[in-house]
Amino acid sequence: MFLRSKHALVLALVVGCSSPKPASLPVEPPSAMTPDPNLAPPPAPASTRDYPATRRDDVVDTIHGTAVLDPYRWLEDPSTPEVQAWMSAQDTYARAHLATISGRDALAKRLAEVFYFDAIGEPTHRGNRFFYPRKRKDQEKTVIYWTEGEHGAEKVLLDPSTWSADGSAGLRGWWPSWDGKHVAYKRSEHNADETTLFVLDVATGKTLADTIPGTKYSAASWTPDGKGFYYTWVPEPSAQVSVAARPGFAEVRYHALGTDPVKDPTIRARTGDPATFVGASVSDDGHWLLAGVQHGWNSSDLYVKDLRKPKADWTTLVAGVDANFDVVAFKDVFYVHTNDGAPRYRVFAVDPRHPARAAWKEIVAERDATLEAMSLVGGSLVLSYLRNAATEVEVHDLHGALLHTIAIPALGNASPMTGRATEDTGYLSFTSFTEPQVIYKASIKAGTVAVWARVELPVDTSQVVTEQVRYPSKDGTEITMFLVHRKDAVKNGATPVFLTGYGGFNVSALPGFVSSRSSWGAHAVWLEHGGMIAVPNLRGGGEYGEDWHKAGMLLQKQHVFDDFLGAAHYLIDSGWTSPAHLAASGGSNGGLLMGAAITQAPELFKAVVCEVPLLDMVRYHLSGSGATWVPEYGSADDAAQFAALYAYSPYHHVTEGTRYPAVLMSSSDHDDRVDPMHARKFAAALQWATGGDAPVWLRIQRNAGHSGADMVRQKVEQVADSYAFLMWQLGMK
């Protein structure tokens, strides 16, 4: 199947974090939910303005008749000695000050208690073997294991902690063959997105000679006979292929085990458009090869090839339609999950003999909940709906009729069901704001579930409640928001609030005990100190269907920022908090959100943590993976889109003399997705401009990519610095 899954490798990214845990790390928690007085960061280092010197140039571009200042253009090139020295000075400065925050080390100690835990992911059944990720509480990284039979002895398959002395090499995905004899896996250096694909012989544990670089955007789809797999290949950057243009050169290839990957045949040619992604997968029975071309995050094309006919050409299922399409093939029927004509999605059955769009048969109609994902397990369709940003799961027969619902707790987030189309057993992962990960084992036929594994953490959330509120955005649109706080919290205007958001790329902000940039339990530590967590469902996300997504993209992007600022106003106006006790945090597209909050409403926030962000929206498309986001943001090359981008671009709206909140910028030294130049330029601009005493620091994570580092101890240090910074600024005790 070809799926744009929002949940892919969630466990690997979250608990995947090499080296044994230091023996000094504590294992016994303090009394649950009782604030440790040693963790309160009282008056911290005096605010100073003695930042490392930063050169400011008179660089001006004229774009569509507008003069655009760019005084820190020189900070875009990290290869120069001057920029290297500047980065080192800024990081050293930030870390030195962060280390002096009173209580910071005790906070790190408590975070270590809740970050080092035992966890296991859903198993994958291939042949007679079962494969699954597991991270033990004394490990820094997730390890992949396998067993012969469901209850066989556990054996190590892939242990990334053994790949490099400093832990900088990481695992970025793994795919067992259908017979269970081989596993294709991707290895990354310094946790960057760039990867090389390898193949492992499961029985011997030996890596074969089949080594394929250029698999940054790839997954391996094995043929049923286990003799090879389809994958996406991209060329290395060169004089002919720039970094920004690389996605347009991606092509689908086939690799036969034991052959030279350089000679792998191209199965589907490149698009030439850097704003597209391509991928392909084989149906379980090997009959159909399904290919998708994704145009940004709101449109995709589907193609199919009959592999039983050697000379068959590609057949177009759908192309050129402004909608998303996912497809699963089973028993020579294509099941298509789409928002075409249905912003909240529906399901069609397609006869391969009559693939024209007009012949598609709707089997599951659109309704008032958003059909976020579809799986085919146990000969049935398992549908994951979002109702008010919480998950509901249903099982339907292949004609679309409802068979039963899967019982999961309310106000939570469940991953799409995993399992085989021909086997009754399926697995799904569930989490909520008060419940760490629970994996349920389900019988698709009976509709019953049982707990298969549960993450246990040294926290007590019994005194924590989750409520969902509604508030108006600037244009009157109603926005929902989750509030997580202790039962005894009162509206006294002094609650320390951790407000976070994303608002983009059709990504939904759902209930969860986890952040991709921290680990389970981080928010629990904030709650232990009397704080509140606030998570609004901003436009640009997928909580309420494609119309909700489109209302926060391209020329409508300002809606996202208005929704977020509306959340801040609600928290203040309703009596929960005040600007002196309000913190904001976000990363990536959420880092852009933080930049907009800082520059558009600095008076609303006391402190902000801005991680791996986009901030120069005039030049973002020229570096990293920026060209792939043009369908979401637009491009300064287009006059109308430039006007919208420039109107909110945070870097271009830093104004001298403004009293900005305290800002901790965070970037990664090997982020090849969002160029770290954004964080560098914005930090330099804020340090120059701010008219108050609030600090502006730039912390640079080492051996880390866009998703951060994958060792637990690095996550502990990162979150300890971020939380200590915010707690100090908010005066938390």
What does this structure look like?
The protein is α+β, with helices and mostly antiparallel strands and 733 residues long. It has three domains: 78-114 and 459-730, 3-Layer(aba) Sandwich (Rossmann fold), CATH 3.40.50; 164-366, Methylamine Dehydrogenase, Chain H; 375-456, no CATH class. The chain has eleven helices and 40 strands. It has an eight-stranded mixed beta sheet with strand order 33-34-36-35-37-38-39-40, sandwiched between helices. Helix 10 (677-689) links the parallel strand 39 (662-668) and strand 40. Helix 3 (104-115) packs across helix 11 (712-730). The protein starts with 9 loop residues before the first helix and ends with a helix.
User: Which percent range fits the helix content?
Assistant: 10-25%
CATH level-4 homologous superfamily of the largest domain: Alpha/Beta hydrolase fold, catalytic domain
Query: What is the percentage of strand-forming residues?
Result: 25-35%
Number of domains: 3
Amino-to-carboxy terminus distance: 51 Å
The fold-level CATH name of the largest domain is Rossmann fold
Q: What CATH first level of the largest domain would be assigned?
A: Alpha Beta
Please tally the β strands and state the result.
40
Number of helices, counting only DSSP H or I runs of 4 residues or more: 11
Sheet with the most strands: spatial strand order: 33-34-36-35-37-38-39-40
What is the molecular shape? Answer: globular
CATH architecture of the largest domain: 3-Layer(aba) Sandwich
Radius of gyration: 25 Å
Largest sheet, in brief, is: 8 strands, mixed
pLDDT averaged residue by residue: 91
Low-confidence stretches: 1-42
